[in-house]
Design a protein that fits this description.
By secondary structure, the protein is an all-alpha fold. The chain contains six helices and no strands. Helix 1 (about 20-25) packs across helix 4 (about 80-100) and helix 3 runs antiparallel to helix 4 (about 80-100). The radius of gyration is 22 Å and the shape is elongated.
C-alpha cells in the first residue's frame, strides 16, 4: 500500500476468476444483506487495491493474502465502529468460502484467509452528556408536557 509493505491486488486489465467469487457469495444472501455486504465489499476493494477501484467485481480476489486480510481488519477497525469492522470481516470470510467452493483457492489458503478474529468493543455513544442543570430542565419540561397530554388529540 502507501508504505510499500503490501502489494495492492490487481483491479483492472485482466479477467477476474470465473465464476466471480463475489457473485457466488452475494447470491447466497438475502436481498437486504446483499446490498449491505456489496457496499462493504466495495470499501474492502478500495483497501486491497490501494484505491484503484471500489468495484468488488473488478478485484482479482484469488490474489488475496493473509496480509491483505490483516490490512482490511486494521483499516476498518481504525474507523472505530466494531460492528462495521465485523461485518466487513464476515464478508471476507464469506468471500473466501465462496472461492474455496468454486475451486478458486485451495483449502489451506481458505483456512489461512478465514482465520481472522472479530474486533471487540462498542462504538462511542453519540451526542453529549447533559450537565445537571440541563438534565433537570429537561425532566421539568417532560413532566410539564405530560401534564398537558389531555390537550393533545
Amino acid at each position: 500500500m502507501a508504505d510499500g509493505t503490501i502489494a495492492p491486488i490487481d483491479a483492472g486489465g485482466s479477467t477476474p476468476a470465473k465464476p466471480a467469487p463475489v457473485l457466488l457469495y452475494l447470491s447466497g444472501l438475502r436481498a437486504g444483506s446483499r446490498r449491505v455486504q456489496r457496499s462493504i465489499l466495495g470499501r474492502i476493494a478500495a483497501i486491497v487495491t490501494d484505491g484503484a477501484t471500489r468495484d468488488p467485481l473488478a478485484v482479482r480476489w484469488e490474489s488475496l493474502t493473509v496480509a491483505h486480510v490483516a490490512l482490511i481488519r486494521a483499516r476498518l477497525d481504525a474507523e472505530g465502529r466494531p460492528a462495521t469492522t465485523n461485518r466487513g470481516l464476515a464478508a471476507v470470510r464469506g468471500l473466501v468460502r465462496s472461492m474455496r467452493r468454486a475451486g478458486v483457492i485451495d483449502l489451506e489458503t481458505a483456512v489461512a484467509l478465514g482465520d481472522v478474529r472479530n474486533v471487540t468493543g462498542s462504538a462511542p455513544l453519540r451526542g453529549r452528556a447533559l450537565d445537571p442543570g440541563e438534565n433537570a430542565r429537561s425532566e421539568e419540561h417532560t413532566s410539564e408536557l405530560q401534564s398537558h397530554s389531555d390537550l393533545v388529540c
